[in-house]
C-alpha cells in the first residue's frame, strides 16, 4: 500500500484504530479482527476529517474504510443528515446501506436511509421523515428529492463517492457536482474506486483540499484467484462455444458480458434455444423486471446472466463461477470490473474472452498490457478438450 506515494506495509487490527466500544462490538459480531490495507490507510485520516482519495481492488473492504469513521462521527441526538454516500447503482447503494446498518447495530439512535430510482418516491419520503443521519443514494434520485425539498443537506459533514469512476462514466458528473455545490460546509470528501480516471481527478482537484492519496495494488494478498483464457472463434460460433464451455466446466452461475443491449437480448435467445436458462439485463429493462431477474439468478433459477457493463456494475453477487467476455470490452477498466465478479471471497474464478476479429484481438492484447494480467490462449483439441496454447 502507498500513502501519498510512500510505501506503507503495516496493516492494523481494528482494536488499534481507537474505535468506540459500540463500533468494536459491531465489527466483532461480523467476525472481523484484521483491518484490510485500504481500511488501515483510510480510517485514521477519515477520523481526523481529512479528504481521502483511495484506489483499491474490488473486494478489499472499501465500504468499511469510509463507513466506520462515518458512523463514529454521527451525532445520534441530531435529526439532520450528517453523512452522504453516493453510489452509481441501486444494487450497490442497497449493499452499502446494509453494511452501514451492520456497523450501526450498537449505536442507538443512528438511522440509515437509502434513496434510489425504481422505487416509489413516496416510500422514500416516509424514510426521510424518520430523520436519518446517514443517507446512501444514487445521484439521480437524490436530485429528485432535492427538487422536491424532501431532503436537506445543509448539515452534511462527510460525503463519499463510492465507485467514483463508474459513477462519472455513467454520466452523473453534472449531478454529482451540483450535489457537492449544495454542501459548502462539509468537513471532508472521500472518493473510493478500483480505478482512478481523469474525471475522478477533475472532481478531486475542484472539491478536495490536500487529499490523502491511498493506493492499494492488486497483489497476492488481495488479487482474486482468476484463471483467464482467450479463445479465437468465428463470430457465429460464439454462442456454441460459450455453451460448450458451460457444460465442460459444469458452471452453475455465470455472467456473460456484451457491449450492447441488443447483443444481450440476442445471446439470451441463443442460449435459451440450446436449453440453457439465460436472461438479459441492461438499461432499457424496467427496474422491477431487473430485480426479478437478479433474484432468479441469485436463487439459481437462471444459469446465465447476459449483461451490459452499466447494468452489471455494483451488483451484489459474489459467488459467480465464471465470467465470459462474449464481446471484448471497449475500455480497459471494463475488463477489470467484469472479471472481478468471479474469484471473490478467496474462491477460484475463471474468465473466458471470446475473440472473433482482428480488432477484438488487438483490444485484448492492449488490455493484457494495461492490466498486467496473464490471459492464456486456449483452444479445443481433437479430443474436444480445452487446452492452452503457446503465447503468440
Write the layout of secondary structure elements.
Elements: E1 2-3, E2 6-7, H1 21-29, H2 37-47, E3 52-55, H3 62-73, E4 83-86, H4 90-103, E5 112-115, H5 121-129, E6 134-137, H6 139-148, E7 158-162, H7 164-169, H8 173-181, E8 188-193, H9 198-207, E9 212-215, E10 225-232, H10 238-249, E11 254-257, H11 261-273, E12 278-281, H12 287-298, E13 304-307, H13 309-312, E14 322-325, H14 332-339, E15 348-355, H15 358-371, E16 375-380, E17 386-388
Parallel strand pairs: 3-8, 3-9, 4-6, 4-7, 5-6, 7-8, 10-15, 10-16, 11-13, 11-14, 12-13, 14-15
Antiparallel strand pairs: 1-2, 1-9, 16-17
Structure notes:
- The chain has 15 helices and 17 strands.
- The protein folds into 2 domains: 2-215, P-loop containing nucleotide triphosphate hydrolases (Rossmann fold, 3-Layer(aba) Sandwich), CATH 3.40.50; 225-388, P-loop containing nucleotide triphosphate hydrolases (Rossmann fold, 3-Layer(aba) Sandwich).
- The strands form 2 sheets. It has a 9-stranded mixed β-sheet, with helices on both faces. Strands 12-13-11-14-15-10-16-17 form an 8-stranded mixed β-sheet, sandwiched between helices.
- Helices cover 39% and strands 19% of the residues.
- The model has no long low-confidence stretch (mean pLDDT 88).
- The chain has helices at residues 21-29, 37-47, 62-73, 90-103, 121-129, 139-148, 164-169, 173-181, 198-207, 238-249, 261-273, 287-298, 309-312, 332-339, 358-371, and strands at 2-3, 6-7, 52-55, 83-86, 112-115, 134-137, 158-162, 188-193, 212-215, 225-232, 254-257, 278-281, 304-307, 322-325, 348-355, 375-380, 386-388.
- It is of the alpha/beta class and 392 residues long.
